[in-house]
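Progress report, Aim 2. The chain analyzed during this reporting quarter is listed below.
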Amino acid sequence: MGKMILTILIAGVLLVQPSRAAPAATTTTAAASLPVVEKRVFTLPRHVTVAGEVIPNVRLGYETYGKLNERGDNAIFIAHFYSGNSHAAGRYSPTDPTPGYWDAIIGPGKAIDTNRYFVISADTFANLGATDPKVTTTGPASIDPRTGKAYGMRFPVVSLRDSVTAHRALLEQLGVKRLVAVAGASGGAMQAMEWAALYPDFVERVIHVIGPGFEIHPWAIALVDAWTTPIRMDPAWNNGDYYDGPGPRVGLAKSLKLLTLTARHWHWARETYGYAESARLPDPERFIAGQFQIVDALDQAGEARAAAVDANHMIYMSRAGSLYRLSDAEIAGIRAKLLFIPAESDLVFPPQFSEQAAARFAAAGGRAELFTLRGGGGHLDGVFAIAQAAETIRRFIESP
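Predicted structure tokens for the chain:
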């Protein structure tokens, strides 16, 4: 028997939910793996930011899956999340242990079917992974041609909109004439909505996964500032001028620890670690130096991730997300159909944000749908549990 679907119309918003008796994820028998993915680099001689500052010599990485048709109108753009990058699907080599983060829904025969669509994903300005050889980004770690040294905190403030406008230039270079859809999770969801607001005649659909709706919430602005506080407290940060030394590795690791914790949920914490003690540290009941497993695991994960993250870039990406806010006129001008996919246990952008945005858009005469991801994984369910929404995404993309 096929998957049972409950379809409900509330306040003009179409809600499509898996039945509680149905499996959480769907599979597609025709699905196959992508061929080996090649990372490319897009360049711009200059970019003028939303605030009017000029950034010369822009370099951003990107990758593509599938083939653009002769009309240039079968393209889908994937915008990445805060700590992600353009590696949305596939593998760079057959021996890569894991594929791109949304490989469950991007590829031949999958929800975003690369047999039919030309899929593009690109790195943002100030991407966190500035030290990752598979990431190409322009940001504080880049060389300022005026000084021959890294910009540091002298780099201009960039918004997510700046990345969107740069990516629009990339699509022009690739020959894309129209986007079937723009999809993204979290910060990528914000970029997707920016696409629809900036280019209403270019974008047909938006898939807004674990996003805030049409604006960042003030609570989230404070949250992302808290994420970067340990960096600024580390003396090795040196007001952003650390490129001749080891940098604020301790503060950065703690920032990444805090990011991971808040992107999860207490269900995940209890189910994954419970009250287990660290196997490598002393007994926490007897020694202050002892630790519980959840804290030790988050510390180790933060330290490991810090090797591929630039601290200044994390600060700049936090500001970029905090600047996201569409005006009433911009929202009214959106012509795309919108699919909101929140996660029920999300503590960063709770489902209410998507529900309110969908109802607001529908009340104004727009077309909005809502699908909620089930599970206790928190904000990261928008990445790890996205297969739950596979058939909804497929139908939304194919719908007239």
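Residues 1-12, 18-29 have pLDDT under 50 and may be disordered. The longest helix spans residues 218-233. These observations will guide the mutagenesis work planned for the next reporting period.
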